[in-house]
Write a structure and sequence with these properties.
The complex is a heterotrimer of chains A (793), B (198) and C (295). Chain A is an alpha+beta fold. Chain A has 19 helices and 36 strands. Among the domains of chain A are: 147 residues, 2-Layer Sandwich (Aldehyde Oxidoreductase, domain 4); 180 residues, Aldehyde oxidase/xanthine dehydrogenase, a/b hammerhead (Aldehyde Oxidoreductase, domain 3), CATH 3.90.1170.50. In chain A, helix 17 crosses helix 18. The longest helix of chain A has 28 residues. The radius of gyration of chain A is 27 Å and the shape is globular. Chain B has a five-stranded mixed beta sheet, with helices on both faces. In chain B, helix 4 packs across helix 7. In chain C, 38% of the residues lie in helices and 22% in strands. Chains A and B meet through strand 2, helix 1 and helix 17 of A and helix 4, helix 5, helix 6 and helix 7 of B.
Chain lengths: 793, 198, 295
């Protein structure tokens, strides 16, 4: 029986023009505005069951017993699974360290850990059955911070761990530690005329993608399973799913369903294995859809962090040294913690020239919710701290905060603390200049002839001020983010490109496993195919595991890497098409043999513009298809003692100027404007580029003034797992976001492009904080800023 | 229980509805209309916004049984809904809403396009595409229903009006700027049509 | 679960009498959240949407009879002159979609201290009309809230309407949330000047186990206004009086620390809101006095 909501080819027809550099419209746009685009939660099958996950109600406990008998006896219940039902000896999964149990075994390590699964004919039947599963817990003490996690006799999260970081960490509750030592910070500190230091605290942020975790697993006749899923990386999921199911990878056929946002929160598995297990056990299709409450437990969050920073500078404004220590709370399982540590350490200095550094970053194992990837990935927390430091230093030196940053800004050729030279444009001073040069928005915009418009004041519709207590502040920040997977990871992508004649027109089909999560990768793929192959019509094949891996939609890498793969495969297809042309038609014109040939406007043309043939004639009766991998320049691991190594591929820079108005009596903030300047190398689709920058900026704003998952330090339980109490910005919280895009080509990258998705999330937060400090005169070392911090209550 | 109501101009019926089911669940899982989205199920995101007897509501917070005999318009019916509104004289003066009679006369036309290209769209839908207001698209259906209804009431909104009207619809991708652009664009195009008509 | 769909008020009362555990559902904006999140599984849901009378209001000579299900949007749009405090409070409720469904009956039935309507209702001095098959009674708003999420109703009673005195003077409402829209109150404050009776009434939300009035603050202010002849003179209120009023309002709070805010902040913010809303209402009163004198 057919499944509804399966993804289909999307063809942009000849009405759509536009190669790279043009703001062509999304190929999936029409489907998305008509409601026809099928997200993973929209999948449906006539006789499908609903899966439900029973999760731990405590953070750390031994599981004394589980009794599922009453649940199984419920009418409409088809299966109840626990750890004991896992089919193979592989019972854990994980991105880098396989420490995460598919279902809890003997112990739960964090609040909301999956313990049992139910499949039933209605979600309510499944919920009621789950409520009848009896679990006896014996609670254990929790560790929730560095002090408790590394104290003498602290309970170990993963006793006897033998992963590849276990050998070099100072304590088993430390996932990974990365020092970076360059020069002599102690000696350099002696040259400093001023020294500033600070302790900074970054709260736990949630990705809060709007489409909760969901998918449909359909058992197949060959004993395998078809999984329709929203994820960021199909092949990474596959590598973790298949062994647990005891199936060869080719029997787990994964197809990307519509993805309702990701932002890092879909790098780890959520319900994938669970749905497959239930489908294989019941031999029926099983759909699992988390609600918002469960979603807060269903994915990892941004690492909360404590950061200690010390900078020195000479009185003429030159940075002398940096000493810093960054402690990231990884929660109960490793997830992406090791890579987040590498990023935080290697980017801890920010986009500044500092020759003498002592940096240390660690991630902890605690009983808090697991933390992993989120847009900005370790660089966000560091940027919050070093930008606060820059303002403190400038103030102490009596210098303008922007000029001070510009005096120390890195540029092409700067050597990073890792010893790696910055080998493409790094216009840090220029993007700061641009945001500063922009005229400030007019004061008191909320005043009108009819009195104060509260919608434009702090507090908004809540009617808390008509101008009383309102003070304006302006703040600046700039950040640096790496692009692509770093530290020696083999970061490649695969693209299959096919060219043929359909309905009398040449059509290119692009098939990759790239997860389109909203970023617009599919738009760009069509643009690249048009540019390289000279066709109007491009068909985007659904992403699945029938083609090679595209790597992850994360680390600002997809346009670079999968875009690079599509470009590469198009080039190979073009060569084959030209070969075909030479074979079929080469005798008609000498230029076939002698000239540089291009594909343009559906024709084969010489570089002089002479038309040699219609593509339709070349391709008549034949299809040309290539599947090829493409990888960016290799990187190296960071030395575990010194942190030296050419660890990164490319950097991305953005600067913000925030203008805020603060109700200083009530401690409420209204961000008036968040201006951005960012170098994008080459804007393949300017409309999408601006959209990414504005979206990233707003997520940074959110964690500046409202977003935080609050975990009770005594119980390690999450206190606000809902959209009622985990607040993300509404349209009334979000200011105008003027964007200034620079295009300074990186010669190493396809088309000179630079990954763009994350950089705007970095500097947005510290810019807002700087503006609030400017308005209030307060120090504010913690984000998000709460009314209590601004009012001393 | 059985629930019968009109969706996008067509009478629909669902059997064996659990009494605690929401209108959203019935639309998505029983009527094959998954366009309205299930992002929070607590009225805090607006992704499930539909019109109930013409009024925008969160369909996740309407019990299915409460909809008995009533009229629902979802994003799937928005294009036809807008077209019929335009054919009935539009709403150039504002504050006209849609009468129940109008709603009853209206009927959805099926679309058979897999790619969507060439589909007839409402002005607000087209504006969302043209302005780049769609990224992941999960918030889009709810925003479209809310924005379309606002433009019906207030064809020349100020930015503050747009922000207030859409303050119940969360978007996590766009930072809202392109959404504002889209609503401004739809309003401007509507204006041009009105002027052209006069 | 059973879904009861009474077609009339009488049928609804009969159903509630037969099934006192039945949970009334009108706008659904509280009840459905609890069902969706599996916090509540009532035996019966009692749908009130088919009772048209509940969505209607009547403006009388002295009072407004506001049906329990009149959506907040309608209050904002139609009753701004008669019930300015409640209209302002209505505008701060959640989102446009929620304001299109929710009404004061839901806030009163749930009786959460965070309900946005409560401070305005307290400040207005309204009465809640409740009814059962046993009869109808009017509960003064001051006696309505009896505990955390508990009200003075009997299990067989339903809320039919609220009878609010038409405003005889300026009213204001202010609420603190950590977002500029769609936010649950950290705390809230409502104030109504009653020039005819020379009274001031207030209401505080989310800063005590129940919605409360700041009675000492009211008494202090009424006395200060009276003794100083301010009602007659329309003179500006001295900052010392405003400050004392704010302090007393703050003192009327009995808040807790929770994820939305600290107790200390709530006390502080209620004081600020009390001072500001007093300023706004008094300025408005003075403006009206002056224009009346000119005319």
């Amino acid at each position: 029986m057919a499944t509804t909501g399966t993804p289909t080819n999307i063809t942009q027809g000849s009405k759509t023009k536009g190669g790279i550099g043009e703001s062509t419209l999304r190929p999936d746009g029409t489907l998305k505005v008509t409601g026809e685009f099928a997200y993973s939660s929209d999948m449906w099958h006539e006789d499908m069951l609903w899966g439900f996950t029973l999760r731990s109600t405590v953070a750390h406990a031994e599981i004394v017993s589980i009794d599922t008998s009453e649940a199984l006896a419920q009418s409409g219940v088809y299966a109840v699974l626990t750890y004991d039902d896992l089919p193979t000896s592989i019972k854990n999964y994980g991105l880098e360290i396989q420490d995460t149990p598919v279902l809890a075994h003997g112990k739960v390590r964090h609040h909301g850990e999956p313990v049992a699964l139910v499949a039933a004919d209605h979600p309510e039947t499944a919920r009621r059955a789950a409520a009848k599963i009896k679990i006896e817990y014996k609670e254990l003490p929790v560790v929730t911070d560095e002090g408790s996690a590394t104290a003498d006799g602290a309970p170990l999260l993963h006793e006897g761990r033998d992963d590849h970081h276990a050998g070099h960490v100072p304590h088993p509750n430390i996932v990974h530690r990365q020092p970076i030592i360059r020069g002599d910070a102690a000696e350099a500190a002696k040259k400093a005329d001023v020294i500033v230091s600070g302790e900074y605290v970054f709260g736990m942020q949630d990705q809060a993608f709007l489409g909760p975790e969901s998918g449909l697993a359909v058992p197949a006749e060959d004993g395998g399973v078809d999984l329709y899923i929203a994820t960021q990386w199909l092949h990474s999921d596959l590598r973790q799913i298949a062994p647990v199911l005891g199936l060869p990878e080719e029997k787990v056929r994964m197809t990307l369903s519509g993805v309702g946002g990701a932002f890092g929160g879909r790098e780890d598995l959520s319900m994938q294995i669970h749905a497959c297990l239930l489908a294989l056990r019941t031999n029926k299709p099983v759909k699992i859809v988390y609600n918002r409450f469960e979603s807060f437990f269903g994915h990892v969050h941004r690492h909360p962090a404590k950061l200690w920073y010390e900078h020195g500078a000479t009185k003429d404004g030159k940075l002398t040294h940096l000493k810093c220590r960054i402690v990231l709370d990884g929660g109960a399982y490793a997830s992406a913690s090791p890579a987040v540590v590498g990023n935080a350490a290697s980017l801890a200095v920010g986009p500044y020239v500092v020759d003498d550094v002592e940096i240390e970053a660690v991630a902890l194992y605690t009983n808090n919710p697991p933390c992993g990837a989120m847009r900005g990935f370790g660089a966000v927390q560091a940027c919050f701290a070093y930008e606060a430091q820059m303002d403190k230093l400038a103030k102490k030196l009596g210098l303008d905060p922007v000029e001070f940053r510009q005096m120390n800004a890195m540029e092409q050729g700067t050597i990073m603390p890792t010893g790696q030279p910055v080998d493409s444009p790094a216009p840090v001073a220029e993007i700061l200049r641009r945001v500063k040069a922009r005229p400030l928005p007019p004061e008191r915009q909320w005043e009108s002839s009819e009195g104060a418009d509260v919608r434009q004041l702090p507090g908004g519709l809540s009617n808390t001020t008509h101008g009383e207590g309102v003070v304006r502040g302006v703040g600046y920040a700039v950040g640096i983010k790496n692009v692509g997977f770093s530290e020696g990871f083999d970061d490649y992508s695969t693209a299959r490109v096919r060219m043929e004649v359909v309905g009398g027109e040449p059509v290119a089909t692009v098939h990759t496993a790239m997860a389109e999560v909203g970023q617009g990768g599919v738009t760009v793929h069509a643009q690249i195919a048009r540019t390289e192959l000279g066709v109007a019509q491009v068909t985007i094949h659904p992403a699945d595991t029938q083609v090679g891996s595209a790597g992850s939609t994360s680390a600002s890498r997809q346009t670079y890497v999968t875009g690079g793969a599509v470009k590469h495969s198009c080039e190979l297809v073009r060569e084959k098409v030209l070969e075909l042309g030479r074979r079929k038609l080469g005798t008609y014109h000498p230029a076939w043999a002698t000239a540089e040939l291009l594909l343009e406007g559906g024709k084969v043309v010489t570089d002089g513009g002479e038309v040699l043939a219609d593509l339709v004639d070349v391709l008549e009766g034949e299809a040309v298809e290539v599947e090829a991998e493409w990888r960016h320049r290799p990187t190296e691991a960071f030395d575990l003692v010194t942190g030296q190594g050419n660890g990164h591929v490319q950097y991305s820079f953005a600067a913000h100027r925030a203008v805020v108005e603060v109700d200083t009596e009530l401690g409420l903030v209204k961000v008036i404007e968040l201006a951005v300047a960012q170098d994008v190398g080459k804007a393949l689709n300017p409309l999408s580029v601006v959209g990414q920058i504005q979206g990233g900026t707003t997520q940074g704003l959110g964690v500046a003034v409202m977003e935080e998952i609050i975990v009770d330090p005594k119980t390690a339980k999450v206190r606000n797992p809902s959209f009622t109490d985990y607040l993300i910005p509404t349209i009334l919280d979000t200011p105008t976001i003027p964007v200034d895009v620079l295009e300074l080509a990186d010669e190493h990258a396809p088309y000179g492009l630079r990954g763009i998705g994350e950089a705007p999330t970095l500097s947005s937060t510290p810019a807002v904080l700087a503006a609030i400090r400017n308005a209030t005169g307060l120090e504010l070392n913690k984000t998000p800023v709460r009314p209590e911090h601004l009012t001393g209550t | 229980m059985r629930v019968t109501f009109t969706v996008n101009g067509r009478q629909q019926e669902a059997d064996d509805v659990w009494e605690g089911e929401s209108l959203l669940y019935v639309l998505r899982e029983r009527m094959g209309l998954p366009g309205s989205k299930n992002a929070c199920e607590q009225g805090e995101c607006g992704s499930c916004t539909v019109r109930l007897d013409g009024v925008p509501v969160c369909s996740c917070l309407v019990a299915a049984g409460q909809v008995e005999g009533r009229e629902v318009t979802t994003v799937e019916g928005l294009a036809d809904f807008a077209r019929q509104r335009a054919e009935h004289g539009g709403c150039g003066t504002g504050a006209c809403g849609t009468s129940l009679q109008d709603a009853q006369q209206w009927e959805a036309k099926p679309q058979d396009s897999q790619t969507g290209e060439g589909a007839e769209l409402s002005p607000i839908q087209q504006a969302f595409i043209d302005a780049g207001a769609v990224q992941c698209g999960f918030c889009t259906p709810g925003l479209l229903v809310a924005a379309d209804e606002m433009l019906e009431r207030n064809p020349q909104p100020t930015d503050a009006d747009i922000r207030e009207a859409l303050s119940g619809n969360l978007c996590r991708c766009t930072g809202y700027e392109k959404i504002l652009d889209a609503v401004r664009l739809a309003a401007a195009r509507q204006d041009r049509v009105q002027e052209g008509a006069v | 679960m059973d879904f009861l769909r009474p077609a009339s008020w009488e049928e609804a009362l009969a159903a509630k009498a037969e099934h006192p555990t039945a949970v009334p559902i009108a706008g659904g904006t509280d009840v459905m959240v609890e069902i969706n999140f599996d916090h509540r599984r009532p035996e019966y849901l009692l749908d009130l949407n088919r009772i048209g009378d509940l969505s209607e209001w009547e403006v009388g000579e002295k009072t407004v009879r506001l049906g329990a299900s009149v959506p907040y949007t309608k209050i904002m749009e139609n009753l701004r002159a008669e019930l300015p405090g409640l209209a302002l409070a209505s505008h701060t409720v959640a989102s446009p979609q929620i304001r299109n469904r929710g009404g004061v009956g839901g806030n009163l039935g749930t009786a959460s201290p965070a309900g946005d309507a409560h401070p305005a209702l307290l400040a207005s001095g309204c009465e809640v009309e409740v009814e059962s098959v046993r009869g109808r009674r009017m509960i003064p708003i001051d006696e309505f809230y009896v505990g955390v999420k508990r009200n003075a109703m009997q299990p067989d009673e339903l809320i039919r309407s609220v009878h609010l005195p038409k405003a005889d003077g300026p009213q204001q409402f202010s609420k603190v949330g950590t977002r500029n829209a769609m936010v649950i109150a950290v705390c809230a404050f409502g104030i109504a000047l009653h020039p005819e009776t020379r009274m001031v009434r207030t209401g505080i939300g989310s800063a005590a186990p129940t919605p409360v009035r700041a009675k000492e603050a009211e008494d202090f202010l009424a006395a200060a206004l009276d003794e100083g002849g301010f009602w007659e003179s329309g003179a500006p209120i001295p900052p010392s009086v405003a400050k004392q009023f704010a302090q007393l309002a703050s003192g009327a709070c009995n808040p807790i620390d929770d994820v939305r805010g600290s107790a200390k902040y709530r006390r502080h913010a209620v004081g600020i809101m009390a001072r500001r809303t007093l300023g706004w209402t008094w300025e408005s009163y003075r403006g009206n006095e002056r224009s009346a004198q000119c005319a």
